[in-house]
Amino acid sequence: MEIHKDEDREGEAILSKYYDGIKFPANVPGNVKDHLESVRNLKDMEGDLLLDSFPKSGTHWTFDILYMLQNGKAEYSTGMILALDFEPIEKIDALNSPRILTTHLYPQHIPKFVKDGKCKVIYIYRNPKDTAVSMHSFLRRLNMEVFKNYNGKWENFFELYATQQLHYNTWFEHVQSWLDFKKKNPDLPILMMSYEDMKKDLRSCVQMMAQHIGAKQDPEFLDEVTSKCQFNVMSKAKNSNNEESQISRDGTNPFYRKGDVGDWKNRLTVAQNEMYDAVIKEKMAEIDLEMKYTL
Ligand code: PPS
Fold first, then answer.
1. Could you tell me which residues come within 8 angstroms of residue 96 by beta carbon, excluding any fewer than 6 positions away?
2. CB-based pocket (< 6 A), ligand 1
3. Ligand 1: distance of its center to the CA of 248 in Å?
4. Is 104 annotated in the active site?
5. Catalytic residue (one of 35, 60, 104, 167)
6. Which domains does the chain have, with CATH numbers?
7. pLDDT-derived band of residue 138, with 50, 70 and 90 as boundaries?
8. Cα separation values, 188 from 47, 115, 240, Å
9. pLDDT class for 242, splitting at 50, 70, 90?
10. Which pLDDT score is estimated for 195?
11. Distance between CA atoms of 53 and 289, rounded to whole angstroms?
12. Is pLDDT above 90 for 2?
């Protein structure tokens, strides 16, 4: 499959594999069409959950909350999260139940059994400005073969992010696709939750997730999950996750950085912000979702 390059104005390239109108990160294994076919036909297991998001929206954070709730113990997961997008399907098949099937896929590409209502779904979204800052920093931290040469400057990255499709296309397309999917499938158990609401009141969000997946809701347990999943506590604990740290250039865990709402104010210039606000205004006119950019 051909590798597609999105080059910024100084020639720094973000690599993807283009299939079915979507730019998938270049580390999707092999041929995207074949991989997606195997994802579509994945066999369900008792207790499966599907966790979906646009990249950098709080996937790892939510994974551990769900993991604790699913297991009834406030203990962190260990090792790498095996995402549907990036692992050979045999590895997902080999996971023990209950699984948290983690992905950034669009609804048209998720496993068929999820569409048949056999699995609870959680979709996490985060404002597109903080998502951009997080994505740029993440790409520059990775040492994986297909990303290790990327050193794009913030202003050049943001120009691409704000004006065209990158991995998983635009934030707007992704969020819109999931809103549409939920609307068209009102009987499917889909919980949509924002990163900003999780930051604002994690305890209530943990409780909502517990309710959604049918986990135990004893208040002390939910309190414990909440305190273990606060950014400062969790990021410290996760820094000793060697498997995740191995994919970064400096040996730190690349899935944890600042964990804030509003960090975009430290990166976007006034001009960048004005330009992107105009994009947001136009795109959000069609998207029925209220976004928070600060708390
Ligand atoms: S990925 O690569 O798409 O799976 O990344 P993802 O896990 O979705 O997002 C990474 C960002 O989530 C932040 N994070 C947290 N925020 C708040 N609280 C907790 N506990 C937490 N854990 C991870 C992480 O720091 C990344 O955001 P930024 O803005 O870069 O800090």
1. none
2. 53, 55-61, 130, 134, 137-138, 229, 231, 234, 255-259, 263
3. 15
4. yes
5. 104
6. 31-286 (3.40.50.300)
7. very high
8. 15, 7, 37
9. confident
10. 98
11. 15
12. no
